[in-house]
Design brief:
Pfam families: ABC_tran
CATH architecture of the largest domain: 3-Layer(aba) Sandwich
Radius of gyration: 18 Å
GO molecular function: ATP binding
Largest sheet: 6 strands, mixed
Protein name: ABC transporter ATP-binding protein
Bound molecules: adenosine-5'-triphosphate, magnesium ion
InterPro entries: AAA+_ATPase, ABC_AA/LPS_Transport, ABC_transporter-like_ATP-bd, P-loop_NTPase
Number of helices: 9
Mean pLDDT: 87
Shape: globular
Keywords: ATP-binding, Cell membrane, Membrane, Nucleotide-binding, Transport
Distance between the termini: 44 Å
Structural class: alpha/beta
Number of domains: 2
Length: 255
């Protein structure tokens, strides 16, 4: 179980995440919604360790991870999609995923005393590359991929780590319409596996409605709603604070 207790960060005088207390059970997908600047990405950064909290804690299965740097939180099971800057741009798609598989296998090595051969690592990496529909680009340098494929690679790297907690921050942002279903299918499949804790920041309310077991709403860094999707979407706070804004944005996009 992932839990944040009074999680808070201040940038100067601005409280970007404001005493957020929330827990997330394995086997559930929670959507995090809220207007631009609400603190959603910052909340993820606090959980994954890219940012250190001003106040409050992040706990995974009761263990306080708040003082750990990001790599050790990854090792503990908090999976944040890699940013492109964390990939090896000149290595192939397959090699990048293999390195992530290897990082995880190395972690298991001490516990299981199982030696994974190079071939096994490559086979596992290739299976993941195919799962994200990048099989035909396995040999391409990561840097050469178009945007949508880069996002698929990010998801592949995350899956290779087999985290306990998956943090997806707008995984379909900037993707073309025909690429979006690939990512959504992957998230749906991860959810169907039943044991992962999945947090998804997503602006598309139809996606949220379909995938989420629960929605939490952040507004000005505060947790302002939390519950079953239909009830949260219908609540006045969401209608005003979030959907009103989303409608305006859609109009702008259409215009
Ligand atoms: N490193 C930083 N230094 C200063 N201010 C920051 C920093 N990171 C985020 N902020 C501020 O914190 C607030 C929350 O930003 P955040 O990116 O978490 O919003 P968000 O909910 O993810 O928005 P969006 O939907 O646009 O992605 C914003 O006001 C932002 O300007
Ligand atoms: Mg964001």
């Amino acid at each position: 179980m992932l839990e944040t207790r009074n999680l808070t960060i201040k940038f100067g005088g601005h409280v970007a995440v404001d005493h957020v207390s929330c827990s997330f059970k394995p086997g559930t997908l929670t959507a995090i919604v809220g207007p631009n600047g609400a603190g959603k990405t910052t909340y993820f950064n606090l959980i994954s360790g890219q940012l250190r909290a001003t106040e409050g804690q992040v706990l995974l299965d009761g263990r306080d991870l708040s003082r750990l740097p990001a790599p050790l939180r990854t090792r503990a099971g908090l999976g944040r999609a890699f940013q492109l800057t964390q990939l090896f741009p000149n290595l192939s798609v397959l090699e990048n995923v293999r390195l992530a598989v290897q990082a995880r296998a190395g972690r298991g090595l001490r516990m299981l005393s199982v030696w994974l051969h190079h071939r096994d690592l490559l086979d596992e990496a290739m299976a993941i590359v195919e799962r994200v529909h990048l099989g035909d680009k396995a040999a391409a340098p990561a840097a050469s991929l178009p945007h949508g494929d880069q996002r698929k690679l990010e998801v592949a790297m995350l899956m290779a780590l087999k985290p306990l907690v998956y943090l997806f921050d707008e995984p379909t942002a900037g993707m073309s319409v025909d690429e979006v279903p690939v990512i959504l299918d992957l998230i749906r499949a991860l959810k169907a596996e039943g044991q992962h804790t999945i947090l998804l920041v997503e602006h598309k309310m139809d996606v949220v409605r379909e995938l989420a077991d629960r929605i939490i709403v952040l507004h000005n860094g505060q947790l302002v709603a939390d519950g079953e999707p239909a009830a949260v979407i219908a609540s006045p706070v969401v209608q005003q604070a979030y959907l009103g804004l989303a409608v305006e944005q859609d109009v702008q996009v259409a215009a």
